[in-house]
Each structure stands twice: as C-alpha cells, then as structure tokens.
What we know:
Blueprint: H1 7-16, E1 19-23, H2 30-38, E2 45-48, H3 52-60, H4 62-69, E3 73-76, H5 84-94, E4 101-105, H6 113-116, E5 123-127, H7 133-136, H8 143-148, H9 162-171, H10 175-178, H11 183-205, H12 214-223, E6 227-228, H13 231-235, H14 242-254, E7 258-261, E8 277-280, H15 283-290, H16 294-299, H17 301-320, E9 327-333, E10 339-346, E11 351-356, H18 368-377, E12 381-388, E13 394-395, E14 400-404
Parallel strand pairs: 1-4, 1-5, 2-3, 3-4, 11-12, 12-14
Antiparallel strand pairs: 6-8, 7-8, 9-10, 10-11, 13-14
Amino acid sequence: MIPRLLEPELLDVLAESRVAFLSGPRQAGKSTLVGTVSGGPWPAEYVSLDDAATRGAASADPEGFLETVGAPVAIDEVQRVPELLIAVKRVVDRDLRPGQFLLTGSADLLHLPRIAETLAGRMEILNLWPMAQSELSRGDGRLVDRLFAGEAATLTPPAATRADVISRILAGGYPEALTRQTPRSRARWFNSYVETIVGRELPAVARIQAADELPRLLTLLAARNASVVNLSDVASGLRISADSVGRYLALLETIYLVKRIPAWMSNIGSRPIKTPKVYFADTGLAGHLLGVDARRLALDPTLLGGLMENFVGMELVKQLTWSAVDAQIYHWRSASGAEVDQVVEERGGRIVGVEVKSSQAINGSDFAHLTQLRDQVGDRFVAGVVMYLGSRTLRFGDRLHAVPASALWT
C-alpha cells in the first residue's frame, strides 16, 4: 500500500478537533486512508453509508444510530445521509473531546452550505485528491515548501523525459485506474467512472434536468482544460443555457471532478470577480475524455501544453494540502496580457510564480511574464520557476530559475 502524505495532517486534526471531515473525489483513496488510520494510530469503528442497510438505519434514527456505533467512529460517505450531521452536532456539543468523529464524503461541504453550517466551528475539513506523483514515487512532496524557503537553485532532480511526463499525465492518480495494465483497460475504468458520477454522485447532490448533456459537457471542458472557460461558448455546443453550464460547472467542482483556479490580483477584493481557470482534478480522466493517447500527445504540442499545465497545477494543489506553508493557488493575467500559469500566495503575502513549458529547450523569453510579476510585487516575490522537460536547474536572473518537472515528485 502506498502511504498518503496527508495522513500526518489528518492525525493532527483528529488530535485537536472533535470532528474531522475527509473530503475528495470518489475513488481517490479516502476509505483506504480511513482504514489505515482507524486500524492503527486512531483506533475506531468504521461504517460506510454506501451500504444500503446501514444507510437506512442512519436515516431512520440518526441519534440512535450514533449511540449504537459509539465513538470514536469513522463514517464513510456521510453526505448520503445529511440528517446524520445534526445528530453528530448534538453529540459533540455535549462532549468536547477531540477525535470523536472522522467523516468522509465525495462532495465538498463548502459548496453545500446547509450541511457545512451544521458543524461550523466543530469540524476541520481536509481534501484528499487522487494520488500525487510524489506519493507514487515515494517522494516527500515538499516542493512548495522548498520554493518558499528560497531553495529553487538547490533543486537537483533527474531529467523529466517527455515520454515519462506524458505517461504520468495519462495515467492520472486514481488508485484503481493505476492498477490497470493497458490503456484499453484503463479506458474502460474511466468510462465506468464517468457513468457512476453522472448516474449516482450528481443526483445525490442536486437535481439535474439535462443529465444526458453532462458527458458532453465534461468532454467540452476537457478540451478547454487549464484555460479560462467562456460559458456561452461551451453552451453553444450543448442543449442548455450558459447559466446552466455555470451551475453544472459548480456542481462538477462540488464533487471534485474539476477545480476552478481564481485569478490573482494585488487587490484582494477584486479576485472573486475575475474569471477563473478550470483544471480537471485528474489529467488521466481529462486525457480519456479528449480521446488522446501517448503518441497523439507527443505529436501535438498544444494538447500536451494544456494537459501539462493542468498536471503541474494539480500537483501543486495536492502538495498544498499537506505543506508547511499555508498558501492558495491562483493564475495571473495582467492588463497588458502577460500571463503566469500558477501564482502560489502564502497568507503573509509572499508569492511563488510557476510557468509550465512542455519542451526541453528554455530561454530568457520564457521568463518575460514572471519578470513582470516579480517587478510588480517586489520583495514579496520569493521565486519564479519555469517547469520544463530539461535535465538541469538553471538560473535566469534574480529569483528566476528553470526547474525540471520531476522536481514535483523526486
């Protein structure tokens, strides 16, 4: 079994909070991690609300159900019985001890206000994404921390070959998909996964009036991954309105199929009104929806560029769930049209900029936009890196470095 780098963070939350909520996409490995924790460092009963009989008992008598299972207890897929959270609230309001409940779910509670508000102030939420490349390679997943520590120049990862990166992009990080030995077998798994999401996950979160359009919507979004999505443009290829596309996009984010990356601006108050980029949570799924294979990606730099930016961005998102640095990820576009793929900003305001290049060659012009960002923010700018397919870390000016993409996982 591959250790998950979020486990120490989860154990810290259980030691300090009455309720821990482990949230993330279906099949990301939540149940496996909960089993590891509850079977050892945090001994607890484990119940799953995917089981029909268990779900029925919890729904019929939430408080009686909790009395039966006792505490500490891990309850899997709790969003399937929302009324159970009210009973959990009553228990932890009477008993303030930490580590009583570990809940998991395949829907983001922050996008389900009625549920989230039930346990406000009593619960900490952790996100578990599909496997990170650093987990698969047994790395420590601390690239973000090293960049904020000013250690970009000391990074010495091995070369990230084009073929290796393409293979990692198309494999993705879902544990079950990674066990499939052939692209055809993996494609069957992704097909079943999409069918399950459309037929089961989304109806459990919200009413969907045009469910038959969702697979096509996913494909259109995959064709625009790592870009600012024009809702009207997407709607023109579907039988639904732009408003419906926006609502469905929000639902897809709620169940962790996509992640919207907000725009970074110096004026914090202006960020929410700027258009976000859309990343797929898993590039293996995005590549499957696009119908591409390794040969196609190797021959099409445009396709590879978008998927590689998505790949790097989501690896940073995953590392931020356990990094020592408390930071958020954005993208940046200036009024003059300069763009930086990812801007990672810590709470103190310090910034790391990341550009992604799907080539082995690099030159000074690739740092033009990072230079503009550096000059705009001044001393708050810690590092600007271009992640590329070369073999060496190279300095390109004040706080600017080219870094092999393999630094993400080695």
